[in-house]
Structure formats: C-alpha cells, structure tokens
Amino acid sequence: MSxxxxxGTDVSGEIAFLARELKTPVIGETFTALGGQARTEGWSHxxxxxxxxxxxxxxxxxxxxxxxxxxxxxxxxxxxEDFTFEHLPTAPRDVIAHLATTTxxxxxxxxxxxxxxxxxxxxxxxxxxIKAAEATFPVAFNSATGWITRxxxxxARGLLDRELRRLNRYRLLVIxxxxxxxxxPAAAALFFQLIxxxxxxGSLIVTSNLPFxxxxxxxxxxxxxxxxxxxxxxxxxxxPLDGDSYRTRAHRKTK
Length: 255
Hints:
The protein is α/β, with parallel strands linked by helices. The protein is 55% helix and 11% strand. The protein has helices at 11-21, 25-41, 45-72, 93-99, 103-106, 121-134, 144-156, 160-167, 185-198, 215-219, 222-233, 246-253; strands at residues 110-114, 139-143, 172-178, 203-208, 236-240. A five-stranded parallel beta sheet has the order 2-3-4-1-5. Helix 1 (11-21) runs antiparallel to helix 2 (25-41), helix 2 runs antiparallel to helix 3 and helix 7 crosses helix 8. It is elongated. The protein starts with 10 loop residues before the first helix and ends with a helix.
C-alpha cells in the first residue's frame, strides 16, 4: 500500500515506481519538472495532475498515430499543408478542407480523385489518409494493381472471402492509380468485389487518371465498370483535378 507523504518516504521514487506499474512512462519522465513548474507558478493540485496526465495522453495519441501511419504503408508522407493549389485553379478547396475533418470516414463515404497525371491525386489521397490516421481510424494504402495482387493471392489459396473481411477492419482503404494499367477479366472481377465489399461498410479513397466514361477500358467490360462505379459513387465526393502537371511545371521552371 502506498505511503506517499509519510515521514521519510521517497515520494519521487514511489511516483516513478507507480508510473512503471501503470505503464505510463511519460508521467515518470515529466512529473518532477512539472512539479517544479507547478510550485513556481502556484498551480493547484488539480492543475498539476491535469498537466501530468495531459502529457501522457498526448504522447500515447502521438504514438498511436505513428503506428497507424506506419501500418498504412503509405509510399511517402504527404500533408495537406504541403499541397499547392497553384496548378489547380478550379480545385474545390472548401470541399478538400471539409474532407480533412475526416467526417466522411465516420459516415462511410468515399472520395474519388480524378485527373491527368501530375495533378496531385496521390498527394491528396495520402494526406487525407494521414488525417484519418490522426483521427484514430485504421487506414491501408496500396495501388490498384497492388490490391489486385493481394486479392489474387488470397483467391488462389481459397481465402478471398476471409481477406475481404479482414480488409473491412480498416475504416479507410486508399486505392491509387486506377486506370494506369488495364485489368484482365479476373482482375476486374476482384476489383469489383473489393469495391462491393466496402459498400456502406467502410470508406474508400480512389485515384484515377481516367474519367468514369473510360473505366470500361481499364476493367475490360462496360457492364462491370458501370456496376463498380455505381457502388463507388453512391456515397462519394467526386473531385475533378484539372490542371497542369506540377512535375511538368517544375521542369519548365528549371529551364
């Protein structure tokens, strides 16, 4: 039983011990410095306790975000703060700012980013994915071909349904680069099943260099394309990104 405050008690040592027992290392690291600040500034006991606990909670939240971002397997870290709209004068900035609140994930809505190469679709997809991870939502990222490869391997082992259920544990899946490579019929069927499995159960962010009218070219069948698009856009924010490639613009500036 704790005897903190009794004569001869090593209070600092006991707090450090209790912090280890509670698995709250930040409390053990900060209680002494915050105690000195509390005495200097005349904090109440409650204010001091709130400050110590606040440091622990903030650290745990930051660690959770780092784990979710790492677990999402983003190809790079991209943020909305780093995104420039100079090359996209017609981009709906207000819609993108609203999406950054991640309410679309809570509502199981989708985001579709359409536009030519170099307009920042992948950057925005990653940035919104990171916002979702910061909001405690589990996220997973892959290219369209990467997702198809993963599902094809599960299908070959007779575990496709199990894999789709496992993916539904993620509140947000990011599917990048739909349309860059055509799908064969088997791949198109797997892609449809992935989209259908998320319908009204989880969110998607999908990027594509093709307008919906050309998805039949990628999926190899207009009927499959129509059924896929129907499920994808029913609860979706479709954002066209029309503008110059930022990579081309950067190349011109170096000349």
